[in-house]
Fold these 2 entries.
Entry 1:
Amino acid sequence: MTIHDLTVISAVDGSALPKKPFTGRHLIDGQWRDSLDGATFVRRSPAHGTLVSVSAKGGSEDVEAAVAAARRRFDDGRWPFSSGKKRASLLTRVADLIDRERERIALVETLESGKPISQARAEIEGAADLWRYAAALARTVHGDSHNSLGQDILGFVLKEPVGVVSIITPWNFPFLIVSQKLPFALAAGCTAVIKPSELTPSTTVILGELLLEAGLPDGVVNIVLGYGEPVGAGLTTHADVDMVSFTGSTGVGKSIAASAAATLKKVSLELGGKNPQVVFPDADLDSAIDAIVFGVYFNAGECCNSGSRIIVHKDIAQEVVERVVALSKKVPFGDPLHPETRVGAIISPEHCRKIDGYVKSAASGGAAIHLGGGELAVPGLSGQFYQPTVVSDVTGDMAIAREEVFGPVLSVLTFDTPDEALGLANASSYGLSAGVWSENVHTCLEFARKVKAGTVWTNTWMDGFAELPFGGFRESGQGRELGRYGLEEFLEVKTLQMRLGQSRELWLNSR
Ligand code: NAD
C-alpha cells in the first residue's frame, strides 16, 4: 500500500502476537529470582502497543547478590582455570541452542525493539556465529616466553582473565550486542553480570536459559534486569567488579568512565557515531545510492553505524539527492511482523519526538526537506513510526549534522575538493565509522588513511565479520570488540620470571 508516495506495510493479522507476556526474572547464581522487593516493569511493543513483557525490576540488593555470585565463581578458580577446550565446547553448545531457538528469540526481539522480523532472524543467526567464533578463540589463549634473558632465567608473559565483568547493553541490537561481548569474556575465563536495556530485557533472559541448558556452571553468568539507576550504576561502581564492558550512548559512557575511575576498573566503551559517507563524482552511483539508503534506514536509523550524513561532490549532488529520494520511497516501512518490512517502529514516543525535533530545527535553520519530515501513520498499528526523511542544504554547524539523530533521517552536505570532504567528515566529536565511494583506489585509500574512524568502508557500507575488530575513535569509545582484539579486551597480562637453580646474586653477601 502506498501512502503519500511512500511504501507502507499495514498491520498483519495479530496471530503472531503472544497471548501472554514474557516473564523475565534475574538470574543469580544459577537461580531465577524475582526482585527482593517484588518490583516489576513492563515493556509494550513500540509498533503494536501490546504488552510484551513483565520483568523483575532490580535494586541494589539484586546487584549485590549477582556480583557476589560472579566474584565467588571467579575466585574459586574453577571457571578461570578450566581448559580452553572445555570453554570452547560449552560456547559451541550455546551457539547450537541459539540456532534451535532462533524463531522464538527473533519474535521477542522484534516485539520489544520494533525491528523487522527478517532482520531480527538475521541478527540471531549472526549472534550464533559470534558464539562459534569465540569458541574457536577460547583454545588460542596464550602468552609469550623469553629464553634469551640469560642462562639461568626464563621469562613468561601469561594472559589471564580480567575477572568479574559487568556487561551493560543498549536496546537497538540487544541479542547481537550481548553476543559481541559475553562469549569473548567467557572464552577468556571471566565471569559476568549482565544488565540489558530496560526497553529490551527479554532476549537476554532467553540467553540465560540457554546458558543453563548448555551446562554453564552456576554463577559464571548472572543477569540483573532493570534501569541505569540503580542497576547499571551499581554494576559500574562495585568494588568487586574488575571491568565494565558498555555499549550505549556517549553521555552514559562518559559517566561510566568517570564513576569507574574511583576503583580504576578497566572500561571498554562502544558508543555513538555520526558516520559520513563521502561520494566522489566517479563513484558507481547505483551501488552508492543503494548503500546510502540502506545505511540510513537500516534499523530505522537507530544504529551506531547509521550512515546518517552523506558528503557529496557538488557536481553530482542534485542527481544523488533525487535518486536517494526516489529509492527511499520504495523502502517498505511498517509492521515489523510482515516478512517484507525493511523498516519498523521507533523505540519510544519520546525518541520519535527527539528525531522530529532535529528535523524541524534543521528546517528552521535553512535546510531543505526533500522527503518525509514527520511521523508516519501505519494503518492498523498504534505504535510510533517516522517517515524516511532526506534533508539537504545542511551546514556543518547544524545539530542534525553533528549529533546522533538515531532515526531514518539523512543529512546531505556537499564538497568541492577532497580536502574539503575530509574536513567535513572529520568535523565531528565522534569517530566510529566512515565510508568513501570512488572508482579510483587512490582516492579511497587516501581518504581511508586520513579519516578519523575505527572502521572505514570503501565502496560498501556496514559489512561486518566476526574476524574483524570493531570500535570507535574519539568520543565513539575505547577498546575493541570482535576479532582477536575482542578476546584480548578481557585478558590481563601477568609477567612471570623464573630463576633456575641458586643462580641469584645476593644483594648482601652474607652466605
Ligand atoms: P543508553 O546509554 O541510554 O543506555 C545503554 C545502557 O546503559 C542501558 O542498559 C541503560 O539502562 C544503561 N544505563 C543508563 N544509565 C546508566 C548509568 N548511569 N550507569 C550504567 N548504566 C546505565 O543507550 P541506548 O539509548 O540504550 O542505546 C543507544 C546508544 O547506544 C546510541 O548512542 C548508540 O550509538 C549506542 N550504540 C553504540 C554501539 C557501538 O558498538 N558503538 C552499538 C549500539 C548502540
Entry 2:
Amino acid sequence: MAFYITTAIDYVNGAPHVGHAYEKIATDVIARHMRQRGGDVFFLTGADEHGEPVADAAAAEGIAPQELADRNTARFKALLPVLEISNDFYIRTTDDEHERRVQEVMQRIHDNGYTYKGLYEGWYCPRCADFKVENEILEGNLCPIHQIALTRESEENWFFKLSEFQTELEALYADHPSFVMPLARYNEALSFIQSGLQDVSLSRRHLKWGVTVPWDPDHVFYVWFDALLNYYTALGYARPGADLTELFWPATFHIIGKDILKFHTVFWPAMLMAAGLPIPEHVFVHGFLLGADGRKMSKSLGNVLDPFEVIDALGADALRFYLMREVQFGADGAVGPEAARARYEAELANEYGNLASRTVAMVRRYRDGVVPEVEVDPVLRGEFDRLVDDIIDLMDGAEVTAALDLVWQRVRRCNRYVEERAPWQLAKDDAAAHELNVVLATLTEAVRVISVLLSPYLPDATAKLLDALGSPVLSLDGAAFAPRGSGALLEPLEPLFPRR
Ligand code: ME8
C-alpha cells in the first residue's frame, strides 16, 4: 500500500513558528501511523524559497535572495529532528531538479493550450503573494487574511485558463466528496468554484527570483505555481537513482492550513488537469493555532507559543502531545505554555506515565519482573476490542485528535482498573495470588497496546517503555490485545515524564 503524505512548504522569509511545527507534527503522526499499518510511506516537507516575500526580505538586508534562503532554510530544516519529524525528504524549491521539473510540467500546460499572454490588473497582497478577486477583498481594500492594504498592480504576464476547469472541478468535487476534508472546507472550496472562476496570472515579469518561464525567459513563474508543483517534482529526485513518481503519485494526503485552501483545492487540481496528471486523493485543511487569549498570535500581543521553549522545558513528546490533544485537528484553537505544562503534569505524568511506572514497578516487586503467563482479564481486554479498527478509520480521515482521545480513554480506564483491583491488597493475601497474576498480566498487556498506539504521538517515551517491556515492535498487527501474559522479564523503568 503506497501512501504519500505532504505538508505545505514553508516560506523562509521569517523564522519558524508554532504553526509550522504544528502542521509537521500532525503530518508526522499520520505518517508514523501509516508505517505501523505496513504502508509504503513517503513523507515530504520542505521550503518555499522563491517569490516576493523572500526577495523583499533579502533586499531589506542587502543580501542576495539565495543567501537569505540558504540561511533561513537551514533554520527550518533544523527544526525537524528537534520535533522528531520522520520525513523521507526535504525539498527546496531552489533545487535544480525541482526547477527543471516545474519547467517541464508548465511547458506541458502551455503546449496543451491552457496559457495566454495578457494584461493583468488587480489588487495584490504582498504578504500572500497573491492577487485577490473582488469577492475576497475586505472593506477598505484590505487583504482578507492579513488585513493589510492591498496594492493596485498591473503588468503584462502569462495567464492560466483556470476558468476552463470550472465544470471539471465541479465534477471532481461531486465524484470525490472526500477530496477536501473536513466537510466544512469542502463546502468552502466548492462554493468558491461555483461562484465562478477567473483566470489567474502565472508569471511575473518584474521579478527575477523564481523559476524561468521556458517559453518566455523574461518571466519567472508566479511563486504558487512553482511551490504547488513541489509535491510532484520531489518524487523525481528524492531518492538518488530512482524515480518514485510511478509508485507514489498521486499523493494520498496534502496537509495544509486554512489560509492556503484556494491554492490547493482549486488551482492545484486544475493545474494537474491541464498537465494531464492524476489528482491527489485528499487535501486535509487544518485550522489556526491562536494565542492563549484566543487572538491571532503576534509578538506585539505577547501571546506567542514558542515551540522551542516548550521543548526545552518539557521535551518534544510533550509538545507533540499537547498540540495534537489541545486543538481538534481541523478547528482553530488557543494554545499557550501554561496549558502545555498543565497537560504534561495531569495527563502525561499523572495518567500515562504513572500507569506505566506502577505497572512495571508492581510486576518487578510482586513477581520478580516476570509477567505472569496467565489468561488476561476478559472484561478489560474486551474494552480494547474495536480500538485498532476505530483508530484506523479515524486516521483514514486524518482525525489525529479523535484517535488520540480513543487511546486516552483506555489510559484512564486502566488507571481506574488499578484502583478497583488494588494489587497492593491482593499481594498481602496468598489466596489471591492467581488474581494478582491476572491483574498484572492484564495491565502489562494494556500498557503495551496503549504504547504501540501512542507511538506516533510520543515516539520517544513509548520507545523507552516498549523497550522496558521487552517488546519493541510497533506494527499495528502487534497492537492486538494478547489473551495471555507474555512471560517477559521487565527492565526497570525511569520516569517517562519526570517533574520539571
Ligand atoms: O503558506 N496555525 O507558507 P507559510 C496553524 N509557502 N498553521 C499555521 C499557522 C498557525 N498560526 N500559521 C501558518 C505558505 N500555518 C506557502 C505554502 S505549499 C505549496 C506553499 C500553516 O510558511 C499554513 O497554513 O506561510 C501553511 O499550511 C503552513 O503553516 C506554512 O505556511
